[in-house]
Amino acid sequence: MTIAIVGAGLGGLALARVLHVNGIDAVVYEREPSRGARGQGGMLDLHSGTGQRALREAGLIDQFHAIARREGQDLRLLEPDGTLLLQEDTPDDAPLERPEVDRADLRNLLLDSLPEHAVRWGHAFEHADHGLLHFADGSSATYDLLVGADGANSRVRALLTDARPAHTGQNVVELCIPDIDRTHPDLATMIGRGNYWVLGDGQSLSAQRNGDGRVRIYLSFHHTAEDWFATSRIPFDDPAAARARLIDLFTGWDPRFTALIAACDDTVLQRPITTLPVGLTWPSRPDVTLLGDAAHLMPPVGQGANMALLDGALLGLALAAHPDDFPAAVKEYEREMFERTSTAGRQSAHVQEILMSPDAGQRMLAFFQPG
Ligand SMILES: Cc1cc2nc3c(=O)[nH]c(=O)nc-3n(C[C@H](O)[C@H](O)[C@H](O)COP(=O)(O)OP(=O)(O)OC[C@H]3O[C@@H](n4cnc5c(N)ncnc54)[C@H](O)[C@@H]3O)c2cc1C
């Protein structure tokens, strides 16, 4: 039986790894030409009960602990006028409840744990029919079970459901301060070792320290339309002018926050935030299933990667438990996955609603310090 996994993201690789440790071969088809072809983005916090559980099933938890950043759990929460609402500094002996990890390091850990040639780079999936996968370069490959792990804009998803991601009314611009300790030590001290959130009415700024010394800055614009990047008058093709326009858009905020924007390099990325309907399901098919963002794209508030990893691990375990009955394994996996991820989707939508509300700072404070 041939298992084909489309997408070498965290979910697809977790599945391939758990299958491998259980003695089952799978082939991962990835559209990128190589592992380093595209930047993998910033930090992820992996939760002990979900993302870390997946890595335990994958036999990689010790290696994960070696690359995890405990101090990345630090949090500072502020308001646009500079008021500090909350500061949480992680003690050195704190349990690794949700340590941060660089996404590229985590992906490399998974990639290095697979046999050579398990991932076929440069294979962009186009469509599947009669047990054949077809790729953009005209090649094809057979499969008995096809797993769509191809992310938010999954092409495999169309085999199971007509659902498509919808825009949430949030648009994010991602910026970056490289080597902040050396280039801007004052701003480095201000941000600290982990997450720095400034939540305003209709806009927010979050800064996150990465393991390689850079700080990624995410500027969120709430209640904005799908075409907002085109209408925002941010000249994305001219980074210096884009930074100046973004500073304008944060007029009235404490100058320390706009100083963060001014300190950025020429990285200016557009990230429209889209989601699938919470609680999406589909009638089970014996030969196709989905995991990760392809199955349950959520707002980026800390659950997506954790769910993708656990989907991959649990699907791998279900297939290992039913080696002669993949359709039964798929059904078992989907039953648990639908329930677990719809709960996570509802929680994520709730946090997203708080972040987009006019009194986001105070509500987030109450969220972290209930009662
Ligand atoms: C700004 C931002 C911050 C986030 N922060 C967090 C966080 O802190 N914690 C958290 O848990 N989650 C976070 N998330 C969500 C998280 O990134 C995703 O939920 C997670 O990466 C999903 O993993 P995946 O394996 O399903 O998909 P992906 O990681 O997107 O991987 C999909 C893979 O499929 C490949 N692919 C796509 N199409 C094809 C094709 N046609 N053929 C072949 N290959 C294809 C892609 O190249 C990619 O390698 C964040 C998301 C964003 C946008």
Automatic annotation (TrEMBL):
Summary of the function given for this chain in its UniProt record: An FAD-requiring monooxygenase active on some tetracycline antibiotic derivatives, which leads to their inactivation. Hydroxylates carbon 11a of tetracycline and some analogs.
Domain notes: Consists of an N-terminal FAD-binding domain with a Rossman fold and a C-terminal substrate-binding domain.
GO molecular function, one term: monooxygenase activity
Domain FAD-binding: 2-203, 288-322
Name by which UniProt lists this protein: Flavin-dependent monooxygenase
Source species: Streptomyces triculaminicus
Family: Belongs to the aromatic-ring hydroxylase family. TetX subfamily.
SUPFAM superfamilies for this protein: FAD/NAD(P)-binding domain
